[in-house]
Amino acid sequence: MELKISDNLTLKQKLDHLNTLIQDWYPDYVGFAIAMLDNDNNLYSVYRSQGYGVKFPDFIEAIHKSSRLSTLRETRSPDIIDDMTCHLPSIKHIHQTLIRKSCLSSMATPIYNKNDEFVGIMFINARIPYFFRQNLNFFNTISLIASLFINDDLNVKRSFHNIIKTILLISHHKDPETQNHLKRVAEYSRLIALYLGKRKLCNGHFIDAVYHYADMHDIGKYMIPDEILFSTNIYTPEERQIMNEHPELGYQLILKTLKQWGGITDDNLKIILNIIRHHHERFDGDGFPLKLKGEDIPLEARIVTVADVTDALLSHRPYKKPWPLSDVIKYLQEGSGKQFDPLCVEAITKNMAKASQIQNQYPDHLTDNAIKSTG
Predict the structure, then answer these.
(1) By its UniProt entry, which PROSITE patterns does this protein fall under (predicted)?
(2) For residue 150, which of 49, 90, 189, 340 sits 20 to 30 Å off, Cα-Cα?
């Protein structure tokens, strides 16, 4: 079997193909998993081959608490456990599970991005002891290939994101303050998604995608006439109706852009378009544009809805001062199950201290013509 990878495959499809190739060559190989690093030095799973087992944790908290993982990060070299049975009885629960599955040796390799920054770890398991000592060069190559796939996926996201950022920068020339609003919404969205990821409600790829694409949610606003978009007066019913068209306008704009660009995979495309089109839906079904209800609203949109409103409440606007944290929490909780997904509300309210840190890290630079409808 040859390694033939098409550019239009998703990251999962590429890694699945790589996993199948290894299985064909090495019967004692079990599978591999890949975890990426978040801002708090924790690892979250972005891929797990079918043979690796469902017991691999979706979230590994605080990498610095694990001597193995911190050493791996510092040495930049593979870390190999030749025989897991030698670690009993102090061995961790995850390794005990692997031993029961006849996975007796393990190899972990660091993943770096194009800027030589540590971004994750690849874990590989085998059924026999000392497997990786005997096949080290091959599996070093495999980890390099997997790293290239990971980096390629990141680069595609960043390339498309840079295109959209250019559009946003041009659109925001009258409103520089909004740039930090978008950055904060992305950070809050990742905060919420990570919380849900810990509860196995989404995977690492989803978390990454939501973070990269959350700040595109309002791109349709910049197809709204300036006299409405930048108005500081209360909207008339007619003006509000025009403003409420921005999710559908943004959806159509990005759909056309993506068709012309052609560099984004279907799974990313779906997340981007769902965020743009559905971030004003309400959990009770009274939102727009499609009046979706509950879990019929895509999870990515439910996350961005809470992140967007949270930032609007915490931020200064020409027509209001920032709300105290206690009032923001109260508002979100009162809207839980009505305007907002209860789990997303739980996620942000339990992490409000981190949300406050994000707010301070990316402060507003106010102008007199800030968009009143942000949020």
Answers:
(1) HD_GYP
(2) 189
Cβ neighbors of 13 (< 8 A, separation 6 or more) are none
CB count in 10 Å sphere of residue 53: 18
| Contact residues for 269 (Cβ-Cβ < 8 A; gap 6+) | 258
Contact between 307 and 348 under an 8 Å Cβ cutoff? The reply is yes
What is the pTM (predicted TM-score) of this model? 0.72
Amino acid (one-letter) located at 316: H
Angle value at C-alpha 96, between 93 and 102, nearest 5 degrees:
150
- Sign of the torsion angle spanned by Cα atoms 245, 279, 208, 262: negative
- Taking the CA atoms of residue 259, residue 263, residue 269 and residue 271 in that order, the dihedral angle to the nearest 10 degrees is -150
Domains of the chain, first to last: 11-151 (3.30.450.40), 172-361 (1.10.3210.10)
Place of tokens 């694409």: 213
Angle between helix 299-314 and helix 325-334 axes, rounded to 10 deg = 140
For 253-282, give the DSSP string.
Answer: HHHHHHHHH--S-HHHHHHHHHHHHHTT--
Mind listing the pLDDT tens digit for each residue in 20-73? 999 999 999 999 999 888 777 777 778 888 877 655 666 676 666 677 777 888
| CB distance 176 to 365 below 8 Å | yes
CA dist 218 and 160 (Å) reads: 16
